[in-house]
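WARN retry 2 of 3 for item q-0093 after timeout on previous attempt; input resubmitted unchanged.
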Amino acid sequence: MRSAHVMAGATSGGAELFYERLCAALASDGDDVLPVIRRDPARAARLRDTGLTPVELRFGARFDVWTRRRIAGHLNRFGPRVTVAWMGRAARHAPTGPWVLVGRLGGYYDLRQFARCDHLVGNTQAMVDWIIGQGFPSGRVHLLPNFAPDLAGAAPAKLDIPPGVPIVLAMGRLHRNKGFDILIAAISRLSGVHAAIAGDGPERVALERLARHAGVADRIHFLGWRTDTAALLAACTLLACPSRSEPLGNVILEAFSAGRPVVAAMAAGPRGLIESGRTGVLVAQESAIALAAGIEGVLRNPAQATSMVRAARQGFEASFSEHAVTALWRRFLTEVDKA
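OK item q-0093 returned
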């Protein structure tokens, strides 16, 4: 299979990271893959390290007419059977041609951006249902989940946190949608529990101020943007995902993989991944009280936490491992090419 994958995303983020992982996995399985990305030296270097040869283009705003023409030129030379446009901006720029054009959504985007696509892919059942509800033909909407790498067995990261204390890890962009303010309020209700927040973004100063005002600045550790996800998970007691909005939740899959219990707010993504009480704990959104109670419940019941970790790991291996998801993608690309 020859497939091109067009991505105009940010320098960091869950969808962007999965894009890199999937391109590399497809190529590793023997497919011919052309990554087309917004200019990003770090992403291009990572893709080249996997043996791929990415094309870097501008991907300007709405009136950028040149990027689509340049993509078309690269695609015509490469000759893909299927071209996948990842998220809205890429879908606006991706040209039609003698290839099947697929739009891959990682959120609830304006579907007018995907009007020229032959098929659409959502990474959760809720997203697929929403796309169909917007009027896109159900026979051309497909569920293909993300995968996370196998993070089990990593050496713990060295954190500037007192030894022996419970550590709640949270990861993501420091944006209001991620609900890190709720986590800080929850930690203020939990004696002796520390939180490590890995990420950066526009809310950092406000979150640091909130931690001081809540009297927990010494127990909230801002780690900045990190790439040692496996080591961070190995160093923590549990993962918290307090998001106000979370279409999927790659961090949850990573915790499943690494064998760490998860406490998550009931956003759409976590609801689709977690069977509460069996593979993790779901709590009410926008509630520091509920989040604190969920964290405390895991900490006080190590036997139940171990049982949840075991069930989550089994589910990860069956449905969210690299092998399982890459096989689904390869089957999908073949099927839409032959349709």
